[in-house]
Inverse folding.
């Protein structure tokens, strides 16, 4: 329960943190931390325009996407506090329910019949397909490391396995979760949310025809997704046994750190060339594979 | 509450309802009466043919379902039906064990749905085809059903080969329903030939068995495998059954036969007939006792390759039914991954991996039969309505055929393995087996298991890519051609049976413990694996949680949708054209096509799928380029190397020999004379 509440709270601040970081990094005064929330409020109050080409799919996609991310958040634990719903293999569910949301966003883009949105849909489908193995290799590494097969069990035992190399996996996990989150949420270096040209967008171009409440829901979905991944990062980097107040503090720190990293990346890094992206994404899987190889060799040395 | 749900599973409920005594003899007699009844199809008038076929099928289903429940609910675990085959006078024992019973239920569901759907699908052909054609079609359909049931319960080798052959012949007759089209006839013959190649492998395997043990029956396999090398005979069986199942590289008949056949037939063939190959492999595996590791690795690698290449080739297809056919190969791969892991579990004594692997594979057999037949049926509805299978000519069907579109969408979500649908459950069980195995196993096996995890996750991602393309391009956007702009929804008789499949798809998705526990029981009793209850204790709670979270998901979607509807009433909602980036004269042709959707992917997957572009180059001196066309196509590399090339070599060799065939009587007399001279010469030399 605590995990879910923490995710919901941090999701509210997350986009503002990114925005502040970017403003400060580029030397602007910039909007306040609550600006994205206010923007969402404006969107909710506004009316909606639907394309005449669209139908049912456009209407239900934002709702399904949001529901899928909330359900994914339900299986993410917070330190020793087990997730609201946890079971063996819950991370498989996590990956597949997120894929369900993505499936609907992709077909919603195709529902408009726009060439731009088709382009974005194709890229989103392609890149998210390529990142899928990285997540599963990482989870395989973790379950081999701890001998357990659910988010809650893995993270509560992560630092008490007696394995001295835990920090390696902790850092690799942190790094890979950042990269996965960036690709899942279509941020730099794979996609630039602030680009002005439809031809170079991925996620933004898919939602061109959304307005009003639906667009607000899509934004909220993105924030939640960030916070969910931030929470996973927190879980691999902070031992579960620590004092609860310290944990809450550290949770906020990790989420803030994540937002600042995203902000800095977007301030100082250029977007990849579109045809370089597959290589970039596959590299992440390769790093996950290296982590797996390390744990394999370690296990072999520990119990030959 | 959830825990109590899983214990009161459907079978315990049914156990109280069904009280079936011993009636094997009467039972088998009834089944033979049904077989004979099928001939009545030739006697009834054209208008009654469908109802007659439905009646006979329903009778058959009633009897065989009775057998299945008797076995699955009864304590004995097996039903023996002894019968004397008429005309031959040989006594044959038909055995229904839990594995056969499971497959019989799968066959029954799809065949029934398919036949009801057929009455709508065949309506347009009612005028153009005569009564005999309809009789033959329905007769073949019924005999495809009978032969599949008999395949599942026949243990004697010779009888098995005979019913296996009836299955191939009846499905061949079904494929060539539209035989006026020469390309369909050609495809049908190619299908028949490839089925017989498989048949030869099976025959060869059975002959080896008879030579070594003196008995030609599945039951003799146990004895053979105890004393001989297992790998070789298993490979023979695997090739024979694998051709039917469609493992790559034995799959070449699938992408041809499925588009050629009428849609209810494709649904049945892809949904259940190819599973007979899986059944055969599992039946043989029941007896294998040595070389388990090699066999497991073989199945696993072939399945991974099938799964990955199947979906990779599916993405570049433009023919909707061909795309679905390649997806059958992918799903056979997923089933095979489960079976392969199960065998590896047997080899290493890891019972949990065995049970989860085999159960995941077996459950996926049921799941695939449901969603794949649903997809073929709804694709058939589209074909009935717009008379083309080319995705590039579709578009905008969601508005014109809303029910069919939603049915196809549900099938797509299920086949991608997304929750809360049934495909997720079987893939979850296979994943769970792998993840649980990882920490407890050695280095080589971990690498294998990790490879399977990566393979399965990539298959999932690629399937999402493929079905967002298929659904998005075919059903959404604006119509891309005259065909789809004039589409109308098909009749209720075609929609209604598909709802039955949908209900089961969702039921298995949200109430999985009811279905998984019986599958665990079938696997553990069939393969004699210990520790079933332990695996069930640790897995069923997880499945209940999945049910719970699926419920939460559905409630969330409903609540959010209601809020959204309520909210939209309070603000101004208007409609306008799609954002065109300032361009004001959009045309449906400017929409993303299926080729352009797969462009990125094509770039990466080129070595595997070999897409070719056909367009004339623009020369440097061509200042004002003329109108030109562009097309791209990809062919199946395996088809080329395994079928086309050898066939070409043989036919070119035979053509050279055909020089002798001049058509002149004088030459033929000369050949006869030369032949006699040679015989004389050889006799004189005492050679013959």
């Amino acid at each position: 329960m605590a995990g879910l509440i923490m995710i919901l709270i941090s999701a509210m601040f997350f986009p503002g943190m990114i925005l502040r970081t970017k403003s400060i990094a580029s030397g602007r005064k910039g909007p306040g931390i609550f600006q994205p929330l206010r923007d969402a409020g404006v969107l909710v109050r506004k009316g909606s325009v639907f394309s005449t080409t669209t139908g049912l799919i456009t209407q239900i996609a934002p709702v399904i996407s949001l529901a899928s991310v909330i359900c994914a958040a339900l299986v993410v634990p917070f330190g020793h506090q087990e997730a609201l719903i946890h079971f063996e293999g819950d991370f498989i569910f996590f990956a597949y329910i997120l894929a369900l949301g993505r499936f609907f966003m992709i077909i919603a883009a195709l529902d408009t019949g726009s060439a731009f949105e088709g382009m974005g849909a194709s890229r989103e489908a392609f890149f998210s397909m390529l990142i899928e193995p990285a997540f599963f290799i990482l989870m395989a590494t973790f379950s081999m490391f701890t001998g357990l097969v659910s988010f809650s069990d893995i993270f509560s035992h992560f630092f008490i396995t007696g394995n001295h190399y835990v920090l390696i996996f902790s850092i690799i996990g942190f790094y890979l979760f950042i990269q996965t989150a960036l690709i899942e949420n279509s941020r730099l270096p794979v996609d630039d949310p602030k680009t002005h040209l439809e031809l170079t967008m991925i996620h933004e171009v898919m939602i061109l025809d959304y307005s009003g409440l639906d667009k607000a829901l899509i934004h909220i979905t993105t924030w939640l997704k960030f916070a969910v991944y931030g929470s996973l990062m927190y879980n691999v980097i902070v031992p579960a046994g620590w004092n609860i107040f310290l944990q809450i503090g550290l949770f906020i720190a990790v989420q803030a750190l994540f937002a600042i990293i995203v902000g800095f990346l977007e301030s100082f890094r250029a977007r990849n060339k579109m045809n370089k992206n597959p290589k970039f994404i596959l590299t992440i899987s390769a790093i996950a594979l290296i982590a797996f190889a390390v744990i394999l060799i370690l296990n072999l040395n520990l119990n030959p | 509450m959830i825990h109590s749900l899983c214990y009161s599973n459907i079978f315990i409920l049914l156990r109280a309802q069904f009280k079936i005594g011993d009636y094997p003899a009467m039972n088998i007699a009834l089944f033979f009466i049904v077989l004979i009844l099928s001939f009545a199809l030739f006697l009834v008038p054209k208008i009654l043919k469908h109802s007659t076929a439905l009646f006979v099928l329903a009778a058959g289903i009633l009897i065989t379902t009775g057998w299945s429940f008797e076995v699955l609910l009864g304590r004995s675990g097996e039903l023996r039906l002894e019968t004397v085959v008429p005309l031959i006078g040989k006594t044959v024992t038909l055995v229904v064990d839990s594995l056969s019973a499971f497959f019989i239920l799968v066959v029954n569901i799809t065949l029934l749905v398919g036949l009801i759907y057929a009455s709508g699908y065949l309506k347009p052909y009612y005028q153009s085809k005569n009564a005999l054609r309809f009789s033959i079609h329905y007769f073949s359909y019924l005999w495809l059903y009978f032969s599949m049931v008999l395949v599942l319960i026949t243990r004697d080798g010779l009888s098995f080969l005979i019913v296996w052959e009836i299955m191939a012949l009846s499905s061949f007759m079904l494929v060539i329903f539209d035989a006026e089209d020469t390309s369909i006839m050609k495809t049908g013959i190619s299908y028949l030939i490839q089925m017989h190649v498989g048949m030869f492998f099976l025959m060869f395997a059975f002959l080896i068995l008879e030579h070594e043990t003196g008995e030609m029956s599945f039951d003799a396999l146990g004895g053979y495998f105890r004393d001989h090398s297992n790998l070789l005979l298993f490979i023979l069986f695997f090739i024979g059954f694998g051709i039917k199942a469609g493992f790559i590289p034995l799959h070449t008949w699938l992408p041809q036969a499925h588009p050629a056949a009428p849609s209810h037939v494709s649904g049945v063939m892809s949904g259940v007939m190819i599973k007979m190959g899986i059944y055969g492999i599992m039946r043989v595996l029941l007896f294998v006792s040595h070389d388990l590791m090699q066999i497991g690795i073989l199945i696993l690698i072939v399945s991974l390759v099938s799964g990955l290449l199947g979906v990779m080739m599916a993405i570049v297809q433009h023919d909707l039914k061909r795309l679905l056919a390649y997806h059958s190969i992918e799903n056979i791969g997923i089933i095979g991954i489960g079976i392969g892991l199960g065998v590896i579990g047997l080899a290493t004594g890891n019972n949990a991996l065995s049970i989860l692997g085999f159960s995941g594979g077996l459950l996926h057999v049921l799941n695939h039969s449901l969603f794949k037949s649903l997809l073929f049926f709804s694709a058939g509805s589209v074909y009935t309505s717009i008379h083309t299978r080319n995705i590039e000519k579709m578009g905008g069907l969601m508005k014109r055929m809303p029910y069919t579109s939603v049915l196809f969408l549900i099938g797509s979500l299920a086949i991608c393995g997304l929750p809360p649908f049934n495909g997720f459950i079987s893939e979850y069980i296979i994943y769970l087996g792998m993840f649980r195995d990882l920490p407890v196993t050695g280095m080589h096996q971990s690498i294998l298991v990790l490879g399977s995890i990566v393979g399965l996750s990539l298959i999932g991602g690629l399937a999402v890519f493929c079905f967002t393309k298929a659904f998005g391009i075919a059903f959404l956007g604006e119509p891309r051609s005259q065909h789809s702009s004039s589409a109308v929804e098909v009749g209720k008789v075609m929609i209604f049976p598909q709802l039955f499949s949908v209900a089961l798809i969702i039921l298995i998705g949200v109430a999985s413990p009811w279905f998984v526990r019986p599958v665990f029981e079938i696997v553990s009793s069939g393969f004699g694996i210990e520790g079933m209850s332990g695996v069930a204790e640790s897995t069923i709670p997880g499945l209940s949680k999945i049910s719970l979270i699926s419920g939460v998901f559905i409630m969330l979607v409903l609540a959010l949708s209601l809020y959204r509807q309520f909210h939209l009433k309070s603000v101004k909602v208007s409609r306008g054209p799609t954002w065109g980036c300032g361009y004001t004269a959009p045309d449906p042709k400017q929409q993303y096509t299926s080729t352009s959707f797969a462009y990125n992917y094509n770039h990466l997957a080129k070595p595997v799928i070999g897409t070719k572009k056909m367009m004339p180059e623009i020369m440097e001196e061509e200042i004002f380029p003329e109108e030109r066309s562009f097309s791209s196509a990809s062919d199946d590399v395996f088809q080329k190397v395994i079928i086309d090339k050898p066939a070409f070599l043989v036919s070119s060799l035979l053509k050279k020999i055909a020089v002798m065939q001049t058509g002149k009587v004088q030459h033929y007399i000369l050949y006869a004379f030369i032949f006699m001279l040679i015989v004389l010469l050889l006799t004189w030399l005492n050679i013959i």
User: Anything to note?
Assistant: Chain A has one domain: 2-28+39-298. Chain A has a mean pLDDT of 90. The radius of gyration of chain A is 19 Å. Chain A touches chain B through 88 residues (CB under 8 Å).
